[in-house]
Amino acid sequence: MTSIQVINKSKHDLPQYETGQSAGMDIRANISAPLVLKPLERELVKTGLHIALQPGYEAQVRPRSGLAYKKGVTVLNAPGTIDADYRGEIGVILVNLSNEDFIVEDGERIAQLVIAEYQQANWEKVEELSETRRGAGGFGSTGVK
């Protein structure tokens, strides 16, 4: 388990894992007044959280499945990436894909944060790529069943 330095400028507790095997921690809206998201409208919702990740780690901002399924509200750039060198406030771009207004309340769980290890890659220019069974087959090329 990696350690993450955090400054919590919100009115809410720090995110936490809800179960022993949860991959993500719910993060909450930190807003001074309720925010109305009209259908197809998007808004950057602040959380009051600032983090410092260790090199080689990122934080992924992902939708909450219940909010997406029950209300049609999701994270627009899912997953959003928070790089290890970013020190600003975590914001979540929410979008309302439903036909009804959605009200974001202060303290509402709006997204989940997943901490993931990554590697940077180097490009290696070549003239040919190795052959595979799939080859250049794109969307749907591996079948429908």
Would you give the CATH topology? Deoxyuridine 5'-Triphosphate Nucleotidohydrolase, Chain A
SSE order, one letter for each helix or strand = EEEEEHEEEEE
Spatial strand order of the main sheet: 1-4-8-6
Q: How large is the count of helical segments?
A: 1
Query: How many β-strand stretches?
Result: 10
**In angstroms, what separates the terminal alpha carbons?**
38 Å
Low-confidence stretches: none
CATH architecture: Distorted Sandwich
**Assembly state:** single chain
Average of per-residue pLDDT values: 95
At the first level of CATH, what is the class?
Answer: Mainly Beta
- Global Rg: 19 Å
Beta strand %: 35-45%
- Largest sheet entry: 4 strands, antiparallel
Q: In CATH, what is the homologous superfamily?
A: Deoxyuridine triphosphatase (dUTPase)
When the domains are counted, the total is 1
Instruction: State the helical fraction.
Output: under 10%
What would you call the structural class?
A: mainly beta
Query: What is the overall silhouette?
Result: globular
Descriptive overview:
The chain is mainly beta. The protein starts with a strand and ends in a 28-residue tail after the last strand. The strands form 3 sheets. The protein has a 4-stranded antiparallel beta sheet. A 4-stranded antiparallel beta sheet has the order 2-10-5-7, with no helix packed on it. A two-stranded antiparallel sheet has the order 3-9. It has one domain: Distorted Sandwich (Deoxyuridine 5'-Triphosphate Nucleotidohydrolase, Chain A), CATH 2.70.40.10. It is built from 1 helix and 10 strands; from the N terminus they run βββββαβββββ. The longest helix is centred in the middle third of the chain and has 7 residues, at 65-71. 23% of the residues are buried. The model has no long low-confidence stretch (mean pLDDT 95).
